[in-house]
Amino acid sequence: MIEKIFARGLRAGQRWGFKEIRYHRVLTVRFLEKLFPNARFVILRRDIAEESNAEVAEALHLTVPAVKSRLHRARLFLRGHLNRYFAGRQRPGAGAP
Fold it and tell me: Which of the two residues, 30 and 93, has the higher pLDDT score?
């Protein structure tokens, strides 16, 4: 899942190297820690553990629409923090063209 988050920002034909993926995982974990516990639980269970919305809803005693809403807000939070972090930064290990 973490690789999917960053793959959206790549141009066609680009690939992340091992060092870049490890660096991005550390950043993602850092930003996950900033989420509210319920939002962190939802995104970890849904995106990392790949459980269904119904399974996550049952674990939290929520409705499926509530899980979808929390998941959407958590993803927006992560995307916003990652976008701000990487704005104007060059990927680690990437040289000048």
Answer: 30
